């Protein structure tokens, strides 16, 4: 019954996760400075509108899903009304360590204002949920092929990495232009709600070539916060709204960004996102086991032949297995790091509309790094419409064709951005998918006055230039007339009158 329930839960998770996507992945969003939301992933970006106001929930909804190992359709195969699983089709394609991530973020409040002296300031409040899991190839090998295929080898089927958090983020945003440089910073105050984290995880299975003796070694340390046990429920520690507004699990974070205008066409930028931590103190339950070791050398065949029906029910084996998986509990506070991201970018402006960009990024993912490279084309047709197309190659997910659409009319700004359009059409064939969408209030234009001044100076200089040219032409005409009427100065000339 438990196995069937677990299979249903796994099936539901794999089925639904690709449909609900985005939180940390935002490669396309970094290329959209028109949005205040882009400042949250690239701190040096400055929104186009003079005043940006986020509508609760509607202004920022995002989801992401990433599985470096397999897609849903590569694991589950349908033939008519029957569903089958063929792990052998994809096990050999797995890496030694594979990654699975799913998450979401919801914006509650946000505002960004352009001030004099090329300064932008703002704030945002949002909830973030992020679940990241690394799993070993050995787990699938052991489950599908058994230990008989790996005589004399050690399989680490418990080399998991798990990090899942739900926390609330209060952030300030500031961007300042200084000459050709633009600097951005976003300090954050964090309050955690729920967390699960593996500090250590290992379960090694070794089958000796002689007599096929099996040795198991386990070492696991799991940390949790925000999950109630019987004592917590009795104390009412997990009741709403106290749970949702819990401030005991506090942390700090920061985003940093900078850009440099190399010339009138090329801009270089880079930054760090989610550099910080959360210290978990409330409703903490930690579980640890090991390091322990258990050796199984088989059952006594001689006892079986003698008719001993208890040959497999010895306390020795049961106690050994119990010791192997016996967890000790503690309530010690612990600290977890945010999934930091490092990126560098370059943009080339071609004419008034077209902008080409490239981005390299690296993100920490449960003690493993995920790398991505993105190429982008953005067409800023006018302040009313912007479109973008992107291509992203990510670790074990090489083909991701994404883009964005931004429409702004009557003080409203609607946007949709994704790193993988294909996943929206066929999510069950995708390893990586995400999207951002929302509705902002966008009032005024940050660069309008500057453009008006530039336009005034342009027309003034144009008019002044033509006045000078006209005056110069008039002077030339006068010079020509003077030259035509000029006579050599040979003294007075007496011309007799006509008679």
- Averaged pLDDT: 78
Q: If you consult CATH, what is the topology of the largest domain? A: Porin
The percent range for strand residues is: over 45%
What is the chain-wise order of helices and strands? Answer: HEEHEEEEHEEEEHEEEHHEEEEEEEEHEH
Biggest β-sheet description: 20 strands, antiparallel
Count of DSSP-assigned helices: 8
Indicate how many domains the architecture comprises: 2
Q: What global shape is seen?
A: globular
Estimated helix fraction: 10-25%
Distance between the termini: 139 Å
CATH class of the largest domain: Mainly Beta
Indicate the structural class: alpha+beta
Q: Tally the beta strands.
A: 22
Q: What is the correct CATH architecture of the largest domain? A: Beta Barrel
Low-confidence stretches: 1-23, 299-306, 449-467, 483-499
* Structural Rg: 34 Å
Question: Can you describe this structure?
Answer:
The chain is an alpha+beta fold and 499 residues long. It folds into two domains: 2-446, Porin, CATH 2.40.160; 452-477. Helices cover 19% and strands 48% of the residues. It has a 20-stranded antiparallel sheet that branches. The chain starts with a helix and ends in a 14-residue tail after the last helix. The model is unreliable at 1-23, 299-306, 449-467 and 483-499 (pLDDT under 50).
Offer a quick outline of the entry.
By secondary structure, the chain is α+β, with helices and mostly antiparallel strands.
């Amino acid at each position: 019954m438990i196995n069937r329930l677990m299979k249903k839960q796994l099936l539901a998770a794999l089925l639904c996760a690709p449909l609900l996507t985005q939180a940390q992945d935002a490669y396309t969003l970094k290329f959209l400075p028109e949005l205040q939301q882009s400042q949250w992933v690239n701190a040096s970006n400055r929104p186009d509108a003079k005043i940006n106001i986020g509508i609760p929930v509607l202004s920022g909804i995002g989801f992401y899903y990433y599985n470096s190992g397999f897609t849903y359709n590569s694991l589950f195969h349908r033939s008519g009304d029957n569903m089958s699983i063929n792990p052998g089709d994809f096990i050999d394609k797995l890496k030694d360590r594979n990654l699975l991530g799913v998450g979401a973020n919801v914006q509650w409040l946000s505002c960004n204002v352009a001030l004099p002296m090329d300064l932008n300031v703002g704030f945002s409040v949002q909830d973030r949920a992020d679940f990241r899991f690394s799993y070993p190839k050995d787990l699938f090998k052991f489950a599908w092929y058994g230990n008989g295929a790996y005589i004399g080898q050690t399989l680490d089927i418990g080399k998991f990495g798990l990090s899942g958090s739900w926390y609330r983020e209060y952030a300030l945003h500031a961007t300042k232009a200084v000459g050709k440089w633009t600097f951005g910073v976003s300090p954050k105050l964090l309050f955690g709600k729920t967390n699960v984290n593996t500090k250590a995880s290992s379960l090694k299975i070794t089958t000796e070539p002689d007599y096929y003796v099996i040795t198991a070694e386990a070492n696991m340390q799991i940390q949790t916060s925000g999950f109630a046990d019987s004592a917590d429920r009795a104390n009412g520690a997990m009741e709403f709204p106290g749970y949702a507004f819990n401030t005991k699990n506090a942390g700090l974070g920061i985003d940093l960004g900078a850009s440099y205008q190399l010339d009138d066409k090329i801009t270089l930028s880079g930054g760090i996102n989610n550099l910080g931590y959360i210290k978990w103190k409330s409703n903490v339950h930690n579980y640890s086991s090991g390091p322990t070791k258990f050796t199984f050398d088989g059952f006594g065949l001689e006892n079986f032949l003698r008719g001993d029906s208890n040959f497999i029910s010895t306390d020795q084996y049961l106690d050994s297995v119990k010791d192997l998986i016996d967890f000790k509990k503690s309530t010690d506070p612990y600290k977890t790091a945010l999934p930091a991201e490092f990126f560098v970018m370059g943009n080339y402006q071609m004419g008034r509309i077209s902008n080409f960009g490239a981005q390299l990024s690296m993100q920490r993912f449960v003690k493993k790094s995920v790398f991505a490279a993105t190429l982008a084309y953005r067409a800023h047709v006018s302040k009313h419409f912007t479109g973008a197309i992107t291509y992203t190659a990510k670790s074990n997910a090489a083909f991701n064709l994404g883009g964005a659409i931004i429409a702004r009319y009557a003080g409203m700004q609607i946007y949709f951005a994704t790193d993988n359009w294909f996943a929206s059409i066929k999510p069950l064939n995708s390893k990586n998918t995400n999207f951002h969408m929302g509705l902002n209030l966008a009032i005024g234009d940050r660069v309008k006055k500057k453009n008006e001044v530039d336009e005034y100076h342009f027309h003034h200089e144009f008019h002044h230039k033509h006045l000078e040219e006209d005056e110069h032409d008039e002077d030339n005409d006068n010079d020509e007339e003077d030259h035509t009427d000029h006579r050599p100065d040979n003294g007075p000339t007496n011309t007799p009158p006509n008679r």
